[in-house]
């Protein structure tokens, strides 16, 4: 954090109340400036010193309003690490950092041993494809010839990203993308993954051979457990030993799940690509048709009429996962989501599980507040994250619920005003958790303040 960002953060902490928009904007810009790394933005200087995929997408949305040239460099640098098969890796490692600066690092992933990988070290996993939406919004925030040229350069890579997911990750052949690791969902240790993760063998020797870095920078009580990490690494090892190939996933890969958030982002990307195609003089029709098929498959495969929400489908167990997590609300981002599902999700969002207040003025938790295993301090098992609130708010606006969107916006700005640009927040007290200078929080609060 720069000196200016530190001073602003200290002032917010002293006042304990909402700051002026100008002060929040200054804090957000200072945070992004402090985390800029020559051609991309690190999520934080402590916990995450490399480039992360969906972080860069959210960051670009905020950067477009203060450093538009950096927004396009952010996305371009990420897509330079795209694999030949079209996948966009969830981590791009900075070769200037020492070995062991982050765990698991390049020595665990060994991406250079796989086929069609870039010259830079990366992971072999992906994250929700929010990049086409980010590119479209970055252009819409600052339209012009430079942005149009950047969109023209990015468009083929964005199409290849979607093609990889459609061709290589539709394991069940039902039109939906399958994630092969909880990290691909973005919600790493969500209760949604407890059941499929329990079936993953966990070797204690795996963890004894490595040392975690996250718990050196954040309270261990706020992070995934060592058992979680042993299973995470076991899944990585299984995927790596198959050369990160997707052809035989259905045979023996230990974790196969269709995630509502990932597939909502997959469909939203086609809607964004349709708009980008029209801007570039291409035919948007194929993108719109694919978007419609994704939404139809999402409703058919993942909507549970008994609970009125979307739930992940565990392909190994052949059933929906019953945990009521915020993943179930994210299909609201799809503009063609049928009215029946929209209405049901609004009821879910306003329930005691997520909204509590009439207009959603309280921060949105990542897990059912009424569940006995709700953990308001532990990573994705309860805390509030700005990127998820931002996505749900966008969905509420899309489907004609401005009053709920306004309440959610107020709560998100309030979190940053009270605690600064933290990685995540206690959903009831607003206390900042994780990294204290987190880039996508800064970027998205800039986007919220824009209005």
Automatic annotation (TrEMBL):
<feature type="domain" description="Mannosylglycerate hydrolase MGH1-like glycoside hydrolase">
    <location>
        <begin position="48"/>
        <end position="441"/>
    </location>
</feature>
<dbReference type="GO" id="GO:0009311">
    <property type="term" value="P:oligosaccharide metabolic process"/>
</dbReference>
<dbReference type="InterPro" id="IPR004888">
    <property type="entry name" value="Glycoside_hydrolase_63"/>
</dbReference>
<dbReference type="GO" id="GO:0004573">
    <property type="term" value="F:Glc3Man9GlcNAc2 oligosaccharide glucosidase activity"/>
</dbReference>
<dbReference type="GO" id="GO:0006487">
    <property type="term" value="P:protein N-linked glycosylation"/>
</dbReference>
<dbReference type="InterPro" id="IPR054491">
    <property type="entry name" value="MGH1-like_GH"/>
</dbReference>
<protein>
    <recommendedName>
        <fullName>Mannosylglycerate hydrolase MGH1-like glycoside hydrolase domain-containing protein</fullName>
    </recommendedName>
</protein>
<keyword id="KW-0326">Glycosidase</keyword>
<dbReference type="Pfam" id="PF22422">
    <property type="entry name" value="MGH1-like_GH"/>
</dbReference>
<dbReference type="InterPro" id="IPR012341">
    <property type="entry name" value="6hp_glycosidase-like_sf"/>
</dbReference>
<keyword id="KW-0378">Hydrolase</keyword>
<dbReference type="InterPro" id="IPR008928">
    <property type="entry name" value="6-hairpin_glycosidase_sf"/>
</dbReference>
<comment type="similarity">
    <text>Belongs to the glycosyl hydrolase 63 family.</text>
</comment>
């Amino acid at each position: 954090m720069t000196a200016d960002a530190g001073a602003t953060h200290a002032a917010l902490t002293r006042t304990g109340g909402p700051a002026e928009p100008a002060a929040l904007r200054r804090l957000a810009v200072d945070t992004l400036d402090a985390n800029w790394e020559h051609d991309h933005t690190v999520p934080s200087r402590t916990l995450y010193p490399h480039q992360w995929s969906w972080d860069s997408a959210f960051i670009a949305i905020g950067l477009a309003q203060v450093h538009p040239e950096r927004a396009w460099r952010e996305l371009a640098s990420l897509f330079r690490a795209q694999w030949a098969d079209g996948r966009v890796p969830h981590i791009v490692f900075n070769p200037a950092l020492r070995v062991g600066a982050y765990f698991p690092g390049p020595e665990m992933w060994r991406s250079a041993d796989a086929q069609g990988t870039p010259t830079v070290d990366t992971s072999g996993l992906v994250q929700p494809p929010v990049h086409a939406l980010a590119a479209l919004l970055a252009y819409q925030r600052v339209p012009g010839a430079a942005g149009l040229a950047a969109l023209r350069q990015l468009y083929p890579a964005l199409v290849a990203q979607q093609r990889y997911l459609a061709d290589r990750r539709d394991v069940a052949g039902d039109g939906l993308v399958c994630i092969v690791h909880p990290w691909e969902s973005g919600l790493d240790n969500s209760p949604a993954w407890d059941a499929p993760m329990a079936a993953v063998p966990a070797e204690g020797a795996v963890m004894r051979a490595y040392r975690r870095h996250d718990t050196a920078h954040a309270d261990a009580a706020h992070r995934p457990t060592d058992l979680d990490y042993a299973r995470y690494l076991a899944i990585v090892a299984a995927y790596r030993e198959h050369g990160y190939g997707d052809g035989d996933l259905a045979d023996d890969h230990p974790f196969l799940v269709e995630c509502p958030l990932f597939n909502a982002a997959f469909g939203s990307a086609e809607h964004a690509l349709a708009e980008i195609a029209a801007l570039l003089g291409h035919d948007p029709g194929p993108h719109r048709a694919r978007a419609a098929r994704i939404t139809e498959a999402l409703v058919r495969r993942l909507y549970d009429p008994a609970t009125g929400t979307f739930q992940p489908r565990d392909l190994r167990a052949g059933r929906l996962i019953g945990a009521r997590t915020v993943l179930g609300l994210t299909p609201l981002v799809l503009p063609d989501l049928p009215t029946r599902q929209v209405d049901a999700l609004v009821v879910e969002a306003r329930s005691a599980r997520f909204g509590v207040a009439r207009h959603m003025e309280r921060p949105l938790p990542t897990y059912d507040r009424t569940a006995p295993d709700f953990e308001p301090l532990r990573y994705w098992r309860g805390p509030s994250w700005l990127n998820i609130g931002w996505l749900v708010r966008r969905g509420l606006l899309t489907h004609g619920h401005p009053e709920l969107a306004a309440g959610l916006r107020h709560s998100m700005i309030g979190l940053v005003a009270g605690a600064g640009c933290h990685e995540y927040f206690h959903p009831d007290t607003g206390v900042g958790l994780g990294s204290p200078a987190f880039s996508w929080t800064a970027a998205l609060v800039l986007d919220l303040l824009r209005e």
